[in-house]
């Protein structure tokens, strides 16, 4: 228990450091269902309670309403399961299995919370486009094939269902790309009526009805209800996803002779104190999404379940595991990645995402759970946080020091100590006598404040939130119906039941300016401890047999609880203004769908080089599964980073989507100016680089919010055939235009090995030197900066003037940086809007496309629907009508140019061009006199 690491000091708890207590957290063997299914998968004998031989019932297969349905029979236990496979727009297939006639209903899954438009919002492919063909084989069983469309490359998509034993294969042009139960691991602990079970000394051990862990007993009143299923990725060598773990980007094997972990990856949102690295242990968030990428294709699965889940991974020689099928089809696949998913409760509910490209998978997943909310523009700037800024003077003095040292920043944060005794929505009035004045001062330079607000509520009759929530019955309940009580920062606490829509709405209302004293439109929120973290609970969380609204057990919704806290907060901020404004809320716990509500971070990391390196694996993994707005605490939360480590951390942190420095209460102050030179200069330059590139970042966020494409990307997303980069994080991409290579070892001068994919030109971002791939280069790196390269063929917009905050840059001119390439079209985009409101949803934005060909740069409006050429569009365009392009820089030009012809509205004029052939040929058009909102071209003339 965390309690060992926590002292209770009068009004609250204080952490003190000690390494992760592994024994506080369950291993597979401690979660009995995990062990049962794991054993089942590795034995031929059916263990107690689990059944083999799940077979499709004769003549039960039907295709009705774009849904293939069948009955799966477990003859040994006389149980019939209902299987449904529905065919969705975008080529997805949803496969659901549960008992046909259960003694009581299973929890139907988190679709209500996770799917962007709920269950009703899923769009099925029209029945007329789907056909079923059934073929009998000699053993009397049939195989059924449903043809339901084609993918983005025109290949046919079919689903095949075998009857004995039941299994499903998704095929692209007859090649299996995703398989369910081809290994026969499918198993259910069928629901049983407790009353009908004989007591003691019988076949069902009474232990199955309750389970102990350390001093805890989970009463499990519904008895065993777990299930497991294997999902295979034929042809796949690398799988990714299923955050959150402090593990590698390319997931490691957990089964088989050469396995890299002994335990399966676990998905169960937990507050793990001083989490260890390179382990499949569960952490704060869960996204049950796995992607597989090979040279041929990318595919994925979304396993929609919010209960405790374990995932085993192994690599296999396909010819041994799915032999008959492979022989029949002449399948070329030599390898496969096999996975085994095991959940404690809920229904089996798997969405198959057929790709075939990574970008297709991202949009297929986004069609289910939605995309990253377009953030407030300020929130992609730099955030300065620590536990805790002491008082109002401290906040204002830190704010001032940023100006003194010429470092831009956007947000300063207040941790739990700003409250009156950890009563959220209140202030410690002695330390913060005038929070409104404080926020107004920050506002003078366009800066914001974020306050922490956790889901535990101090149990105190004199605290209005506690009193009202108790009276209204809004707290999570014990299984005897009383309000659940546990310990967290304030001591005795209760937890709001966010699954109760009325309670969630009530919390949202608490953010109105008249209720939240001392709040202004400049205040934003941080949700912490929302796994939920309970210091004296099992595994530092809530008991699974606690009850939520409608009698739902906590075990069923554990992994979505944090997302619901995030949602209520986000909605509260949105609604506090008469004209709703975009919220900014950071959350520690998350689930599939959390991206709709704001940002997340990787939790309590440590100030060491290993954590610095690991942050990129975690950030990339999350980006692959839709959690784009994520970053790690810069500098490391626990411990004191050396100046070199802190400098390197900033230099990497500017390339992660969420960019915040944070530190534990016991650490030394580490604001950049406290480091002295040369570190201060390097950190300042790094932060300024982030600000220069904000137009690029904001455009990436917009594109992510439209299509689901990650903001930061493993190399293979952009170079899908470059196998040598499938498992690396020593370099990664920001958008499609930049490659970043973090320095994760001590030393002022470090050599980085960079792999440049073939047939592409790359440019050193700082020197402009060009490199032709394929090439592996040793790049010596001084403390000044970390290696960054631009990809030839990109056009990257920047704003070069240094200001105190992003807000103050909003009317600055742009520079367009063109990186030439003879291999591909040279293109870029730029998105801008007011950065705050929802006007962009009605067309109030500018989205430009730049193309450079035949030595001419063209600026045109990127495609927009007619409906968005609205009054908001016209008004916004007008408001930005004076914003210039102040410079065009073309890198990689072999020829020299002396002038440029600018064509705008049919009128031509000439301007000067300067070219230098030093390094790789750079031509600059200074002040071409064109506006960012307009169409024009700039032709370079020799
Ligand atoms: C735990 C969070 O992870 C950390 O960031 C925060 O500073 C402490 N709680 C105190 O609120």
From TrEMBL:
Protein name: Glucosidase II subunit alpha
Domain Glycosyl hydrolase family 31 C-terminal: 708-796
Primary localization: endoplasmic reticulum
Pathway noted in the entry: Glycan metabolism; N-glycan metabolism
Single annotated GO MF: carbohydrate binding
Keyword flag Zinc: no
Polar residues bias (residue ranges): 198-215
Region (Disordered): 194-215
């Amino acid at each position: 228990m965390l309690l060992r690491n926590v002292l209770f000091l009068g009004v609250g708890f204080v952490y003190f450091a000690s390494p992760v207590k592994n024994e506080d957290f369950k291993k597979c063997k401690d979660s009995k269902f995990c062990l049962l299914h794991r054993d089942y998968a590795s034995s031929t004998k059916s263990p107690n309670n689990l059944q083999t031989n799940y077979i499709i019932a004769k003549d039960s297969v039907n295709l009705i309403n774009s849904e293939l349905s069948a009955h799966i029979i477990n003859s040994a236990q006389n149980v019939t399961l209902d299987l449904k496979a529905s065919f969705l727009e975008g080529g997805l297939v949803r496969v659901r299995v549960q008992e046909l006639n259960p003694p009581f209903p299973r929890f139907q899954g988190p679709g209500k919370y996770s799917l962007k438009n709920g269950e009703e919002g899923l769009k099925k492919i029209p029945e007329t486009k789907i056909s079923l063909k059934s073929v009998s084989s000699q053993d009397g069983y049939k195989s059924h094939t449903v043809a339901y469309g084609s993918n983005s490359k025109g290949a046919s998509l079919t689903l095949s269902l075998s009857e004995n034993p039941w299994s499903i294969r998704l095929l692209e042009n007859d090649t299996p790309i995703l398989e369910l139960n081809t290994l026969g691991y499918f198993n259910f602990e069928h629901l049983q009526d407790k009353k009908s079970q004989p007591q003691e000394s019988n076949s069902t051990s009474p232990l199955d009805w309750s389970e102990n862990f350390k001093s805890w007993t989970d009463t499990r009143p519904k008895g065993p209800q777990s299930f497991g299923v294997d999902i295979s990725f034929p042809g796949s060598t690398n799988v990714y996803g299923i955050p959150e773990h402090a593990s590698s980007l390319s997931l490691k094997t957990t089964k088989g002779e050469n396995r890299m972990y002994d335990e399966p990856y676990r998905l169960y949102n937990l507050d793990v104190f001083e989490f260890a690295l390179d382990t499949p242990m569960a952490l704060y968030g869960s996204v049950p999404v796995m992607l597989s990428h090979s040279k041929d294709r990318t595919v994925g699965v979304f396993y929609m379940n919010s209960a405790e889940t374990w995932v085993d991974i192994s690599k296999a020689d396909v010819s041994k595991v799915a032999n008959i099928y492979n022989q029949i089809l002449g399948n070329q696949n030599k390898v496969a990645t096999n996975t085994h998913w095991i959940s404690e409760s809920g229904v089996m509910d798997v969405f198959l995402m057929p790709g075939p490209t990574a970008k297709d998978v991202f949009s297929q997943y986004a069609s289910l759970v939605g995309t990253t909310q377009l953030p407030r523009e300020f929130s992609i700037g730099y955030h300065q946080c620590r536990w805790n800024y002491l008082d109002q003077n401290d906040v204002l003095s830190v704010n001032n020091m940023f100006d003194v040292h010429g470092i831009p920043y956007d947000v300063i944060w207040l941790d739990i100590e700003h409250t009156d005794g950890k009563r959220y929505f209140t202030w410690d009035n002695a330390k913060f006598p005038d929070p409104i004045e404080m926020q107004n001062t920050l506002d003078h330079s366009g800066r914001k404040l974020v306050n922490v607000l956790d889901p535990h509520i101090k149990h105190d009759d004199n605290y209005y939130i506690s009193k009202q929530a108790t009276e209204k019955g809004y707290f999570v309940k014990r299984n005897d119906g009383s309000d659940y009580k546990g310990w967290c920062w304030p001591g005795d606490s209760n937890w709001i039941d966010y699954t109760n829509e009325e309670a969630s709405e009530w919390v949202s209302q608490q953010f109105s300016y008249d209720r939240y004293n001392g709040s202004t439109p400049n205040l934003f929120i941080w949700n912490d401890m929302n796994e939920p973290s309970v210091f004296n609970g099992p595994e530092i969380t809530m008991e699974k047999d606690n009850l939520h609204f409608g009698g739902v057990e906590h075990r069923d919704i554990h992994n979505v609880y944090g997302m619901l806290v995030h949602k209520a907060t986000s909605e509260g901020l949105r609604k506090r203004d008469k004209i709703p404004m975009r919220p900014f809320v950071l959350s520690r716990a998350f689930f599939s769908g959390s991206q709709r509500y704001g940002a997340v971070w990787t939790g309590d990391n440590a100030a060491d080089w290993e954590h610095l390196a690991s942050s990129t694996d975690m950030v990339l993994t999350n980006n692959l599964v839709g959690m784009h707005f994520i970053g790690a605490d810069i500098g490391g939360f626990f411990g004191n980073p050396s100046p070199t480590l802190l400098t390197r951390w900033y230099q990497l942190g500017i390339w992660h989507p969420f960019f915040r420095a944070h530190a534990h209460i016991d650490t030394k102050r580490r604001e950049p100016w406290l480091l002295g030179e040369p570190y201060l200069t390097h950190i300042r330059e790094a932060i300024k680089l982030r600000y220069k590139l904000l137009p690029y970042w904001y455009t990436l966020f917009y594109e992510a919010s439209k299509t689901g494409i990650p903001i930061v990307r493993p190399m293979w997303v952009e170079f899908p055939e470059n196998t040598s980069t499938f498992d690396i994080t020593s370099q990664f991409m920001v958008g499609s235009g930049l490659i970043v290579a973090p320095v994760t070892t001590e030393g002022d001068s470090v050599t980085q090995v960079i792999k440049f994919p073939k047939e592409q030109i790359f440019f050193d971002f700082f020197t402009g030197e060009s490199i032709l791939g394929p090439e592996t280069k040793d790049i010596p790196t001084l403390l000044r900066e970390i290696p960054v390269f631009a990809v030839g063929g990109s056009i990257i917009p920047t704003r070069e003037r240094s200001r105190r905050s992003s807000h103050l840059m909003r009317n600055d001119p742009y520079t367009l940086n063109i990186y030439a390439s003879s291999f591909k079209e040279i293109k870029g985009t730029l998105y801008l809007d007011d950065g705050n409101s929802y006007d962009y949803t009605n067309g109030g934005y500018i989205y430009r496309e730049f193309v450079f060909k035949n030595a001419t740069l063209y600026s045109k409006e990127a495609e927009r629907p007619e409906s968005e050429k609205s009054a908001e569009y016209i008004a916004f365009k007008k408001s930005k009508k004076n914003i210039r392009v102040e410079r065009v820089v073309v890198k990689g030009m072999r020829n020299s140019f002396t002038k440029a012809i600018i064509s705008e509205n049919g009128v031509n004029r000439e301007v000067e061009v300067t070219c230098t052939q030093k390094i790789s040929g750079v031509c600059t058009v200074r002040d071409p006199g064109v506006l960012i909102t307009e169409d024009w071209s700039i032709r370079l003339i020799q």
